[in-house]
């Protein structure tokens, strides 16, 4: 709410209605939101019998005090504070997008913005040609023919080890090296875990991968491709060699700026919210390069407020 109001301060009063936006925010049900605390705030524990001090809290003079700003989380007697911005915390089965930073032994080390070390074992990838066999010393020598330093890849969290390290795998046609598109990084908290993280934005002609670690990838969907085949196109060498058309590059730019706009307003990022931003920009005749201007942000916020008010009636 505070981030949204901060954006309103830079907007022309004639372009949007703060009262309309405030009514829309209230209609979302403020009572259902968790408590927000700042550093030094006292956390109310009078309503429960006893409590356990969790992360982000400290007991001072018999009272529970927040040691960092964030949202209060209560699990039985455990009371903790979850920071609004933090590094990605992996969960089993998460779809992530990461960049290869090093080859070490029989594994690749990746950067996915997590707290822990992230590795992709040679045994956890599909060999060229789809061969099903034990990995040999020759496969280890030729690891750079699969992924090399700097490659951007999509993968799934396979396991979480006791030491906090994360193991990934790409044993599926929809995972692998990403090419022929572009990506944007946002706070991981804005990406909610959902059933499908691979989706097709039909109206934009794009395929999207929504990484749970906050990386979002877009690439063109070529003619004749279905939603199922498009998510596996990064595995095809020919896909990276086909240059994107001017219209496709414009669509990717619009999608990237839509994600940046949503992130600047601390709004959840999903295929529906991205398409909604692009729809408003198309209706108002706003080009991709102007989607991050204060004037368009005001137009989008007013449209979003009207939609929320209508849905609450």
UniProtKB/TrEMBL annotation:
<dbReference type="GO" id="GO:0000177">
    <property type="term" value="C:cytoplasmic exosome (RNase complex)"/>
</dbReference>
<protein>
    <recommendedName>
        <fullName>Ribosomal RNA-processing protein 4</fullName>
    </recommendedName>
</protein>
<feature type="compositionally biased region" description="Polar residues">
    <location>
        <begin position="229"/>
        <end position="238"/>
    </location>
</feature>
<keyword id="KW-0694">RNA-binding</keyword>
<dbReference type="InterPro" id="IPR004088">
    <property type="entry name" value="KH_dom_type_1"/>
</dbReference>
<dbReference type="GO" id="GO:0071034">
    <property type="term" value="P:CUT catabolic process"/>
</dbReference>
<dbReference type="GO" id="GO:0000467">
    <property type="term" value="P:exonucleolytic trimming to generate mature 3'-end of 5.8S rRNA from tricistronic rRNA transcript (SSU-rRNA, 5.8S rRNA, LSU-rRNA)"/>
</dbReference>
<dbReference type="InterPro" id="IPR048565">
    <property type="entry name" value="S1_RRP4"/>
</dbReference>
<keyword id="KW-0539">Nucleus</keyword>
<dbReference type="Pfam" id="PF21266">
    <property type="entry name" value="S1_RRP4"/>
</dbReference>
<comment type="similarity">
    <text>Belongs to the RRP4 family.</text>
</comment>
<dbReference type="GO" id="GO:0071035">
    <property type="term" value="P:nuclear polyadenylation-dependent rRNA catabolic process"/>
</dbReference>
<dbReference type="GO" id="GO:0003723">
    <property type="term" value="F:RNA binding"/>
</dbReference>
<dbReference type="InterPro" id="IPR026699">
    <property type="entry name" value="Exosome_RNA_bind1/RRP40/RRP4"/>
</dbReference>
<feature type="region of interest" description="Disordered">
    <location>
        <begin position="227"/>
        <end position="246"/>
    </location>
</feature>
<dbReference type="InterPro" id="IPR012340">
    <property type="entry name" value="NA-bd_OB-fold"/>
</dbReference>
<dbReference type="GO" id="GO:0071051">
    <property type="term" value="P:poly(A)-dependent snoRNA 3'-end processing"/>
</dbReference>
<dbReference type="GO" id="GO:0071038">
    <property type="term" value="P:TRAMP-dependent tRNA surveillance pathway"/>
</dbReference>
<feature type="domain" description="K Homology">
    <location>
        <begin position="184"/>
        <end position="219"/>
    </location>
</feature>
<dbReference type="InterPro" id="IPR036612">
    <property type="entry name" value="KH_dom_type_1_sf"/>
</dbReference>
<dbReference type="GO" id="GO:0034475">
    <property type="term" value="P:U4 snRNA 3'-end processing"/>
</dbReference>
<dbReference type="GO" id="GO:0000176">
    <property type="term" value="C:nuclear exosome (RNase complex)"/>
</dbReference>
<feature type="domain" description="RRP4 S1">
    <location>
        <begin position="87"/>
        <end position="159"/>
    </location>
</feature>
<dbReference type="Pfam" id="PF15985">
    <property type="entry name" value="KH_6"/>
</dbReference>
<keyword id="KW-0698">rRNA processing</keyword>
<keyword id="KW-0271">Exosome</keyword>
């Amino acid at each position: 709410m505070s981030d949204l109001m901060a954006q309103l301060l830079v907007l022309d009063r004639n372009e949007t209605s703060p009262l309309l936006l405030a009514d829309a925010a209230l209609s979302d049900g403020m009572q259902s939101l968790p408590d927000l605390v700042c550093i030094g705030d006292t956390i109310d524990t009078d309503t429960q019998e006893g409590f356990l001090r969790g992360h982000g809290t400290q007991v001072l003079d018999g009272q529970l005090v927040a040691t960092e700003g964030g949202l209060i989380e209560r699990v039985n007697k455990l009371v903790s504070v979850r920071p609004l911005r933090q590094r990605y915390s992996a969960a089993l089965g998460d779809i992530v997008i990461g960049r290869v930073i090093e080859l070490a032994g029989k594994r690749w080390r990746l950067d996915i913005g997590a707290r822990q070390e992230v590795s992709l074992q040679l045994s956890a990838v599909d060999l060229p040609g789809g061969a099903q066999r034990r990995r040999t010393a020759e496969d280890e020598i030729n690891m750079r023919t699969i992924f090399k330093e700097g490659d951007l890849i999509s993968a799934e969290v396979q396991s979480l080890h006791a030491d906090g390290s994360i193991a990934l795998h790409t044993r599926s046609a929809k995972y692998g090296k990403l090419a022929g598109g572009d990506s944007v990084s946002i706070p991981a908290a804005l990406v909610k875990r959902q059933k499908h993280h691979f989706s097709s934005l039909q109206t934009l002609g794009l395929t999207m991968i929504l990484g749970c670690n906050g990386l979002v990838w877009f690439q063109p969907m070529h003619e004749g491709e279905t939603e199922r085949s498009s998510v596996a196109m990064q595995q095809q060498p020919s896909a990276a060699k086909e240059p994107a058309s001017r219209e496709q590059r414009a669509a990717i730019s619009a999608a990237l700026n839509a994600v940046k706009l949503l992130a600047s307003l601390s709004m959840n990022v999903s295929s529906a919210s991205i398409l909604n931003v692009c729809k408003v920009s198309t209706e108002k005749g706003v080009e991709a390069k102007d989607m991050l201007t204060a004037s368009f942000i005001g137009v989008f916020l007013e449209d979003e407020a009207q939609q929320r008010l209508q849905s609450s009636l």
